[in-house]
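thought: fold this chain, then report.
action: predict
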Amino acid sequence: MRGHRALSMLLMRLLAALCLVMPAAALAGPPPPLALYGKLPGFERATISPSGDRIAIIGLSGDTRQLIVLEKDMKPLIAIPLGDLKVRGVFWAGDNRVLVQKSDTAALGLGFTADKAELSSMIVLPLDGGKMYQVFQGNAQITGGISGFHGVVERAGKYYGYFGGMTMDGRDGMFASRELKTTKPVLYEVDLETGRATKLADRADEQSWRDWLIGADGSVKATLNFAFNNGRWSIRNAKGDKIAEGVNPLGGVALIGFGSQPDTLIYGIEDETGGGGMDWTEVPLAGGSGKPILDDVGVRQSFFHNRTRTFLGYEVEGDKPTYRFFDPQHQKLVNGTLKAFPGSSVHLVEWSDDFGKLVVMTEGPGDPQRWWLVDVKARTAEPLGTAYPIVAEAVGPMRMVKYQAADGMDIEGVLTLPPGREAKALPVVVLPHGGPSARDYPGFDWWAQAFASRGYAVLQPNFRGSTGYGPGFERAGRGEWGRKMQTDMSDGLAHLVREGIVDPKRACIMGASYGGYAALAGVTLQQGLYRCAVSVAGVSDVAKLVITEINQSGENQTLARGLKAEIGSGRDLRAVSPINFAAKADAPVLLIHGKDDIVVLYDQSNDMAAALRRANKPVEMVTLAGEDHWLSRGETRLAMLKAAVDFVEKHNPPDPAR
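observation:
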């Protein structure tokens, strides 16, 4: 690719009218307003149709969040307001139907093990004048939206979607009644033109779970069954023949997809210690010996052909995206795309069926997440929009830092610095990620950038137990909640102090989910390190978390074994629970929690606030009404960020004279 062709004036006017490329905030004077970071991105996602002629976008038009479909010439075809709709995915079924997956937090009635659940739905939007509807809409036998999406298939010019559905028992009739005896889904094929659902496969029993692999012809090619009680699993082909089996007490088994040819499939197995990572095996669908594949490669994500469903390639795990495709031409095109954006992390998002057009997102130094349409034949990269409309000079520089933990283990982290300031004796926010099976990358992180814009260095440590550094590194986090995982974070702080980058007396710690737990642990299980702590949807009582998880799962033995392997049990859990050490808290604490959180229940923060108050410790609590664990709504997401920044600036001001 030789560079970027200038947009035509017409295209520039169209994009400006859509506000998909938004006005940028200037660096001079005050920092960009927090709303630019805290609200939902101005450009959230984009997906391209099979032909490459249409693009579906979720972004802002003015101040209105919309689903916008652009034609081949970038002319808007439709624009539908979305409000605070919690969009989880956008997909194409041919060029004339867009599927929008959303979720809603729903209250559950008696007989369920949880009070609330996040229920998913799929909206089918015809672009040829048909009526919009939801999958399973009006079907009295199927409740709760969809329970799993298994893709779209074209057959004889028609498009079909494959969905799990919680199915009622009983039949219609004057004296008949329907009841939901199990939430295990049945697999259905749905005609996306008529909405008619046809049963394809039965659900699993109550003591197991099941997954399916759908072929290019719409038939079930393989079925994975896993038993909770003993961890036994098996994969059977369309004839019911067993083609793979084994035992994994922690449940680490998954159907990855078809192999590079449609007559094989790939499955993944995590080692039985729960050490992280998966070993992949490719096995013939007809049966026979399997062979390990990519056993020396860290795979961040895998790519499959939209039509044939065969394995095309993968993204290699690393600080910046790199890709491996089996087709040399595909590899050449992707390599050319990466070269077109030197210095940026280039995320391959979507592509047309012929690989002639690609949707990519770039981020990195000076880049607040820009979206592009790459036309391979025309050798162009046309801008689609910007997630965070901030000028390049206002993007805080980010880089990886390496240091050693106290026991000698090598640790990495992402360091984001304030734009335009010398990296010397800065105030710092330690921002551990959630999961904890996750990791941070040197890209545009809206939390980190918001604090950097206010004058803070931000350290995001990839402590032991993080993914992306191999099974051994992830396994090293087992049983280390509040222990070595925690000191890995403070060891990173100490490293920045030795480098002269940050002031050891001007540090706070903040995080969400597991990161929120780490923030609380930083001022209770540890002392003398931080001037304040901000916990967003954090865990305070680890023992209560484990009990709640197991109870809500219906005493799932696989989950119980997995939690014990990861965190511990009994008094081990009490020994690493910040709520039991509230009296030792040595810095002010801010607790922020969504009332509709179903992952870490609201009580975790409410109980911690009560414990700190009983101990006469300074604490504030912010309740986000209608918000879930993922901060899915723009207004409450911004409210969280404003509260957190105000709290940190109060207790650890960026200007030491304050």
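thought: worth noting. The mean pLDDT is 91.
final: tokens above.
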